[in-house]
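Query structure, 272 tokens:
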């Protein structure tokens, strides 16, 4: 019986390479600290964010179970950066923008905001930075994957490579009851980041390039210079485990939105 279970889990991962995922509304995809300023009495920390120590890692499909756009595996180095401890909440969006676009608006203010386009987020960040005097942004795709993998470790999902442990770390189709959930209700990964796999897909700053990995810069890559689509990462509450993989990439039009798509903020080290 044990061998059969292991075999089925392996088949689940291998099957990922044969499917092309399309992100659409029908398919896609404790109270947190404020994210709007610097922690009182500590000039090196930003509230609600985790300082990620930079480093080098092998970016891409190291398990050889993913799609062609996750290849080739290539060496990437990122500098130190801050990343939101969790996905941006409905409450924070409401505070800054004065509205709540989320389909799951009855979930509560501590649930991730969703149904926001990449373009919407640029307006949000502009207002947030004006109000706070900070320079928040979306993470790059390289920063996101490095953080999701706990500093570039070889992990299938954020926090684990063991299938039976996935539900401890992620809200996905198996346990979500087909809806989003309050931030920080699952286990974080080794860096203290929540919901890097599941709950909602997350926009990153990069343009999508299917073959970009073959020509990516080594140091702090920022994505393709051409292309009309942006990148989504992490999978969501309605996705299968293969879509929650830390190396999974999804293209999506920056004007489009879905009830399974949100984001988290990033920030460069203070003083840079």
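Result returned for the query:
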């Amino acid at each position: 019986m044990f061998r059969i279970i292991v075999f089925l889990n392996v088949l689940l991962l291998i099957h990922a390479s044969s499917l092309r995922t399309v992100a659409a509304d029908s398919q896609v995809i404790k109270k947190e600290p404020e994210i709007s300023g610097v922690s009182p009495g500590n000039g090196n920390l930003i509230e609600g964010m985790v300082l990620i120590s930079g480093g080098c890692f092998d970016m891409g499909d190291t398990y050889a179970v993913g799609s062609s756009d996750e290849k080739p595996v290539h060496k990437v180095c990122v500098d130190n950066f801050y990343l939101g401890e969790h996905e941006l909440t409905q409450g924070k969006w409401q505070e800054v923008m004065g509205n709540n676009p989320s389909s799951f608006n009855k979930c509560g203010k501590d649930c991730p905001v969703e149904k926001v386009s990449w373009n919407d987020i640029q307006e949000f960040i502009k207002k947030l930075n004006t109000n706070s005097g900070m320079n928040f942004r979306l993470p790059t795709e390289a920063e996101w994957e490095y953080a999701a993998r706990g500093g570039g470790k070889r992990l299938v999902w954020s926090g684990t490579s063991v299938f039976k442990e996935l539900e401890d770390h992620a809200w996905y189709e198996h346990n979500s009851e087909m809806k989003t959930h309050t931030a920080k209700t699952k286990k974080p990964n080794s860096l203290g980041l929540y919901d890097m796999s599941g709950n909602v897909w997350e926009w990153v700053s990069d343009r999508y390039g299917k073959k970009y990995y073959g020509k990516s810069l080594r140091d702090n890559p920022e994505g393709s210079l051409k292309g009309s689509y942006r990148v989504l990462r992490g999978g969501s509450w309605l996705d299968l485990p293969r879509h929650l993989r830390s190396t999974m990439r999804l293209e999506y039009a920056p004007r489009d939105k879905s009830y399974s798509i949100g984001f988290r903020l990033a920030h460069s080290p203070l003083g840079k």
